[in-house]
Specification:
Blueprint (H helix, E strand, L loop, with lengths): L1 H19 E4 L8 E3 L8 E10 L8 E6 L7 E10 L4 E9 L5 E7 L12 E8 L3 E9 L5 E5 L1 E4 L4 E4 L2 E2 L3 E9 L2 H4 L2 E6 L2 E6 L2 H4 L4 E9 L8 E10 L2 E2 L9 E3 L2 E6 L7 E5 L11 E7 L11 E10 L4 E11 L5 E7 L19 E7 L7 E7 L22 E9 L7 E7 L5 E5 L1 H6 L2 E8 L7 E12 L3
Amino acid sequence: MKLIGLAMLASCAVFIALSEERTEPFDSNPEWDGMNNRSTGEMRPVVQDFGYVAPVGSEGGQIGGMLTPDGHPAYYAKKIPEANFDTPLNASGNMTIKKGAGNFLLGFFNANTVNDWRMPNSTVFRINGRGETFHAHTEYATSKWRAGAGIVGRYDAETDRNHPIENPSDMTYRWTLVYDPAGNNGSGLITATLNDMKVVMDVSPEFRQDGAAFNRFGLMPVVKHADTGGECYIADLEINGEKIDLTSDPKWDERGNHASFFSDETRPRFNFGYSDTHYAGGKAAGEIGGLFFRGDCRYPERLAYYGAKTEPLTLEKPLRASGKVTFRRGVSDSTTLFGFFNAEHSVKVSDSQADGMPTDVLGFAIEGPSAQGFFAYPSYRTHGEGRSQGRYDNLPVIYPDGASHDWELRYEPGAAGAQGTLIFILDKNPPVVHEIPAEHIAEGATFNRFGFVTPWIDGNGQIVYLDDLTYTVRQ
C-alpha cells in the first residue's frame, strides 16, 4: 500500500506539472490562433535583367541593366582570388544611374554569404535611386554581420560628418573604391570617391578581428524585401589593377540576374505560422516560423500574431518558456518578437508611433543595431508605459546563419510591492538578467497567448523558426 500511495502521489505531481506547462513538438499542425500571419496582400513584380551589355555604336561594352531589391539573391560578378581584411582591394570605373528608383550594391563580396542586407563579407558602394537623383553610400560588413557605413557627400565641419548629395541621374560619374589594410593605424581604411566627392571610412580594430572573406567583385540588388527597381551601367572598369575588357562578354559568374516573377517577400506581407519544415533542430519535422516583419499599429492589417491560447497569466506569479530557435535571414531595421502576449491589447490599433513595443508582452527579441549584427535579448512591456529600455550590455549574439540554438525565458515575481526578475539564456551564454521595477509591475499586464506578435512601428523582416517549445499555460 505504501508503494501504491507513492505512485499515486507521483502521478498527481506529474499532472500538476503538466497542467501548468505545455510541451509542443509540432509533429503535426497545432492549429494555433492567428491574425494576419498569412497575408494575402499584393505581391510585388520583380525584374532582374542585368549583366553584360554589348557595345552599341561608338559606346563600349558595359555591366548593368535593371536591378530590383528582393530577398531572392541575384548577382553578376567576376571571380577573384580569395581575399580578406589583410588584402589590398581596389576598383574604379564609370557609373551611369538612370532616373527612377532602385537600390543596388557594387563592390567586393563573398558569393557563399549573399543572403542578407547588410551583407556579411562585403566592401561595397550602395546606390539608392531617388527619382531625378540618387544617393551614394559606402558599406562594409564582417564575417559576423557587424557593419559600418558612410555617405559619399559633402563634409560638414559643424557636425563632423558627410551629408548626402542629391546627385543628378542620367549622368556619368567617375568612381573609385579602395581598401587599404594598413590604413587607420593598421586596422583598415576604406576610401571611396564619386567625381570630386570623397568618403573615408575606418574599419574598427574590433571589427577587423571578426575577419572577412571576399571572392567576387560585381553588381547586385540589395538583398531585402521586394521594392521598386532601377537601372545602372558600369563601364571603363578596373579591378585590383586589371583592366576589364568589355568589348566582348567576360563570362562572369551569374545568379538570378535574368528573372521575372512576383515576389511574396513584400514588406509587410507576413508569412509565418506552422510549417512542416525542420530548420530549428527539433527532434522531428514540424515547427513554427517563417517571414516575420515589424508591424505598424496605425493599420489593423499591419498587425499580426500567431500563438497558442493560454489561461489568463499575469506578473503576479512565475512564467517560463524554452525551446529551440534558428535565425535564417536578418535585414537591417528588423525585429522578431516572441513570447507571452495578449490577443487584444498587444495588437490594438493606435495612431501613436511613440513606442514600438506592444503592451502586455513578455518575451525575447531578435534585433540589431546594424553596426553590431544581431542580438537575442529579453523584452517586456506592461499594460501601461512600463517597459524594458532597449538593449543591454553583454548580450548573446545570434547570427542569421541557420544554426540551431537552445533558449530559456524565466520570469520570477518579487514579494508584494517589490521588483521582479526577467531572465533569458541562449545556449551556454551567461544569463541576461533584467530587473522589472515594482512600479512597472503595479501597472499590470495580462497574457493569453504564447507565440509571435508584431512590434508597433514598421520595418524590415527576418526569417525565424522555433521548435520543441515548453511554456506556461496556467499559473
